[in-house]
Request: fold
Amino acid sequence: MADRVEISFQDTKFSDVAVDGLFAGLVAGLVMAACLSVTALLRAEMPGMLFSRFYPAEAASPWTGFLMHLAVSGVYGILFGCVYYLACSLPRLVFFPRRTLALGIGYGAGLFILAWYVLLPASASPLRQLPFWDFGLAHLVYGLILGWRFGRI
Reply:
């Protein structure tokens, strides 16, 4: 029988967590896109029209908007990985899966508030046309998936 080896979080490199954040952000972005697509279909809007709003140019391609959404999701995933790494580095703070889920949901909520009240109005983005609740729910789902992924590290 092989001995079980346990690796502490201190053995994890910052760069590894950033790469994990990138991939977790891409997965969370895909789930977020699915959530937004479902809510768009419930509003009788085609997903292509939805994703064309993610690119600021007039007559944007839905594929370009979708890829832009995934790119931003990956970057925010990297930032979450950095936040998670720094939070886990604190000596008294221990993250269990439930706490990590809560951190992820809080992160998604923070991104939503930042986007809805600061970034979208400042840029006059067409994403501002999305309903408040749809956009908020999608960000909470994004954060939930990020937290779930990092709770498994």
User: Anything to note?
Assistant: Residues 13-150 form one domain.
